[in-house]
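Bug: token stream looks shifted between consecutive jobs. Job 1:
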Amino acid sequence: MLFGFGTKKLQVSLEKPGTLHHHISDDEKYNVSELTIEGELNGTDLLLLRDMAGYSMTHGGSKGCLKRLDLKNARFVTGGEGYARNAQGMCFITEDDVIPVRAFRKCENLHVVILPDNVKRIEPHAFERCSHLSSVSIPEGLETIGFRAFRKCLELKTITFPSTLTGIDKEAFSDDVRLKKMCINSSTPPEIHISSFYDVPVFEVRFYVPEEAITTYKKNPAWKKFRNIKGL
């Protein structure tokens, strides 16, 4: 359910991690619809971002209305508070250069996310059930996408993978029923599981790969199910 109706746009430059709340007050955090961040972020900052994007660790759904999050010039680092917890009550913390486990899970208000330039991994469940997420900008340098990382992103229609990607885990994009276009810049097919794109209409997806790698993808046991493979 979407709650917020704010239209405020903010650009924040952090001098040190854990200080995002110094720039965004409790009075305005639920009115920010577009946010650009520069600097280092930790678990304390992510806890606030999740609340702004529609999901609170304490209360579940929140009044946040953050739709567009630009982290291109930001960086996740280890430290800060736990930003999410599992059924056993264990809290998760951030890691250096990683989109961490459950980072934005159930943040239903997010529409557009631009990931940090230095991200190496997207961990399990990172964007799972971001039901309005329609655009994710993934940088060169990303190597792996974890289990159910983008599961049930029901509005995700297109995605581009970098040349550095080496693997996509089980059910990473499962139930993304509107996915219609994929581009991958690697001539070497990344490893994927048979369930990585479970319930995605793979026969309909327009799949673009480097021209010289078309035959390689068509012969690859995991990727050949994408029958509409074309050159970039």
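Job 2, same session, no restart:
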Amino acid sequence: MSEPKRKVIFSAMQVTGRLHLGNLEGALRNWVRLQDEYELYAGIVDLHSLTTGFEDTSELRDNIREAAIDYLAAGLDSEKMAIVVQSWVPAHAELHVLLSMITPVGWLERVPTYKEKREQLHIASPSYGLLGYPVLMAADILVYRAEVVPVGQDQVPHLELTREIARRFNHLYGETFPEPEALLTEFAVLPGLDGRKMSKSYGNCIHLSDSAEMVRE
């Protein structure tokens, strides 16, 4: 008898900088376990990195390479799952454009992390890329027809928006995409050095590639 088809799962991380302990505890360890239970696609979402870091892209290529190394070093097995570099798969951007046509601006403005990033990073004039971040995230998930998405609590509103977008697309054009379910991660938020969520954008990280001496400091 053939094995039952495994559910598709998609999860990803930005590469605005080197990966850190929050990435390891909040995502990577979980992915290593999930690769044996699901058809796993682990994304390196470099386009997302441009939403707040478009002025200087000089380190982006190196960050992509370092992220892939960290993924494998953490225990992801390319024989069991797929590592996806977002910009290398044109379907991500193509689906994002199509989904943006049916997504009301009001849906995007109510996403809590949009306001949070504007305030935390002191962005006076936000770009569409920042506002439309959840639409690109929806495209990342739906292009693989993912049925499950591991997320932290802070990402639940984004995933709910993905479900709404999928629901609207299906209503307009027929059943095309599943409405992905959230799989909450065990460690929703790991504090950074300043007490806020550990984030590459906030510069408050302990990086996976830091020396033992630096980590102790």
